[in-house]
UniProtKB/TrEMBL annotation:
Name the record gives this protein: Phosphoserine phosphatase
A Pfam family matched in the record: HAD
Catalytic residues as annotated in Swiss-Prot or TrEMBL: 79 (nucleophile), 81 (proton donor)
Organism of origin: Gulbenkiania indica
Cofactor: Mg(2+)
Alphabetical list of PANTHER family matching this protein: PHOSPHOSERINE PHOSPHATASE (PTHR43344)
Pathway in which the depicted protein is active: Amino-acid biosynthesis; L-serine biosynthesis; L-serine from 3-phospho-D-glycerate: step 3/3
Family: Belongs to the HAD-like hydrolase superfamily. SerB family.
InterPro entries: HAD-like_SerB, HAD-like_sf, HAD_sf, PSP
Any GO molecular function: L-phosphoserine phosphatase activity
Length: 280
């Protein structure tokens, strides 16, 4: 497979681009915008040297399949918490119980892959027992924000006929509202059990964990009649690794180290609009 190297930053200095060309032993790149450059026929064996050079300048560097462009894609699969949105919803819900620090510590360990996701989810949700359901609405209205570049990316997907699937180890209360508000094509998540207007401390149905995320991606891909190469996926936590591996291109977005190491691409500095430049 042939690869292209895509560089993205607020500004790419010509002299530094020439140094990257020297590392690659390649011609000068195509400059699609002041902050976007693409080297064709780039050697992925130089990935580590390029990454070290670019990271020192806060550039995002990605080796992507050379022939994959937006016109070829059919589905973008995204995690929700700390990917499509800036917060971890469960941590903000816990804040309503005065337990944010305790729950956030478990969340962090889970996202790093240090503890089992399903066990950690059940433990965190149990701490929410007795909280009024209205607290979820407060989190949605007052604390939830889209990640910079999200709306631009969604508009780009619609313009190119690429379906957008939100799949989360979080909760349907948030995914369903985002689906309606943003016009998403698919949304999957865990459902919090509620009784008499209060959280019971349990979730209902099958847990959306790493394996479930991968399975849901495969089911939607098959329903749309797409090949694996026509699917891209993005996420930040260890529970996203299986779905990132199943996609044609898996993108670690401001992700935990274990995810950055295993994903095809890592976006560490820019917003979600940088996903657009990968396949422009």
């Amino acid at each position: 497979m042939q690869y292209a190297l895509v560089l993205q930053a607020d500004r790419l200095e010509p002299g530094a681009l020439a140094e990257v060309a020297h590392i690659l032993d390649a011609p000068a790149p195509t400059l699609d915008a002041p902050g976007l450059a693409r080297f064709e026929n780039a050697d992925p064996a130089q990935r580590d040297r390029v990454a070290t050079f670019c990271e020192a300048r806060n550039w995002d560097a990605a080796f992507v399949p050379a022939t994959t462009r937006w016109e070829d894609l059919g589905l973008l699969v995204s995690d929700m918490d700390s990917t499509l949105i800036t917060i971890e919803c469960i941590d903000e819900i816990a804040a309503m119980q005065g337990l944010k620090a305790q729950v956030a510590a478990i969340t962090e360990r889970s996202m790093r892959g240090e503890i089992d996701f399903t066990a950690s989810l059940k433990a965190r949700v149990a701490l929410l027992e007795g909280l009024e359901e209205s607290a979820l609405d407060t989190v949605y209205r007052e604390r939830l924000q889209l990640t910079p570049g999200a709306e631009t990316l969604l508009a780009h997907c619609r313009a190119h006929g690429v379906k957008f699937m939100l799949v989360s180890g979080g909760f349907t209360f948030f995914t369903e509202r985002l689906k309606a508000e943003l016009g998403l094509d698919y949304a999957f998540a865990n459902e919090l059990e509620v009784a008499n207007g209060r959280l019971t401390g349990r979730v209902t149905g099958e847990i959306v964990d790493a394996r479930a995320k991968r399975t849901l991606l495969m089911q939607v891909r098959e329903a749309l009649g797409l090949a694996a190469a026509q699917v891209i996926a993005m996420g930040d936590g260890a529970n996203d690794l299986e779905m990132l591996a199943e996609a044609g291109v898996g993108i670690a977005f401001h992700a935990k180290p274990v995810v950055c190491r295993q994903a095809d691409v890592a976006i560490r500095h820019g917003g979600l609009d940088r996903v657009i430049g990968l396949f422009a």
